[in-house]
């Protein structure tokens, strides 16, 4: 993982095709989410906008600090390069695992409050999800797309 993510991330926003950027630490469930959503019509919409989807493993308490740092680093890199009204959805994934952290705990652990303070115009939402059953995946994307409609 490099220290400068600006270029690749900024490049994503110079594309004319709309897209949603899914990111997160290894093993958080990104591939599983994409696999589960593969037939989803939401991903093929031609809505002319983008959103971010950050995937967090809610059972992995040991990597909470790392996942927070990674998120804040990416958000710092995109600030000023990505329109402020492009929203960020956080999937609090693996929520069905006993002892997993709640969406509320995840927003505290990620320190979303300070991200909101730094960029009060950017919308945030934490959605509990299970990529295996698909629980919460569409609710999360619905929120992201509703936000996009208002842009
Ligand atoms: N219990 C549980 N396991 C999951 C969930 N999502 C992904 N996994 C598992 O977590 C591991 C990593 O998932 P993967 O999609 O490969 O993560 P990626 O590295 O972010 O793409 C795999 O063993 C998945 O089966 C979930 O919601 N609940
Ligand atoms: Mg993967």
From TrEMBL:
Keywords: ER-Golgi transport, Golgi apparatus, GTP-binding, Lipoprotein, Myristate, Nucleotide-binding, Protein transport, Transport. GO terms for biological process: protein transport; vesicle-mediated transport. Gene3D superfamilies: P-loop containing nucleotide triphosphate hydrolases. It is found in: Golgi apparatus. The keyword Transport applies. GO terms for molecular function: GTP binding; GTPase activity. GTP binds at residues 93-96. GO terms for cellular component: Golgi apparatus. Its main location: Golgi. InterPro entries: P-loop_NTPase, Small_GTPase_ARF, Small_GTPase_ARF/SAR. It comes from the Eukaryota. Pfam families: Arf. Belongs to the small GTPase superfamily. Arf family. This is Uncharacterized protein. It comes from Brassica oleracea var. oleracea.
